[in-house]
Structure formats: structure tokens, C-alpha cells
Specification:
- This protein has a domain of 46 residues.
- 15% of the residues lie in helices and 0% in strands.
- It is mostly helical.
- This is Subtilisin.
Length: 73
Amino acid sequence: TMDENFIQQDYPTNNKRTNADPTWGVGAIQAPEVWAAGIRGAGVVVADIDTGVRGTHEALRDAFREENGWFDP
């Protein structure tokens, strides 16, 4: 059971920002300006620690490297 002192009421918000567009962060990090400067990220390895990665997605399939393991220095 849950102690009623820890139950909190939900309140509506006026947050009009939505992350429905999966590319919303591209502009937020000013990627177009970086690309215009000729920096394209060639050779960069990006890590994602997530069980929900679909390596067959068109944006990933040609460079996806799956490795199931962990690192503990």
C-alpha cells in the first residue's frame, strides 16, 4: 500500500512545446551552422546505451555496430 502523504495531485500544464518532430534537436544544437562550416562528423563513433535501438532503420543500417556487453574500468 501507498502512504497517502506521498500521493500528489496531477495538474494540467500549458507546455505547448512538443517533441513530436524527431529532428527538433538538429536546430537546437545549431547543426546546420556546423554542417555549413564543412564539419560533417565523418569517422565519429556514437554510442547509445539503450535496448530500443533498431539497427535496421534507414538512418543507421549502413553503419550500425551492435555489441552486447558492458565495460567496467
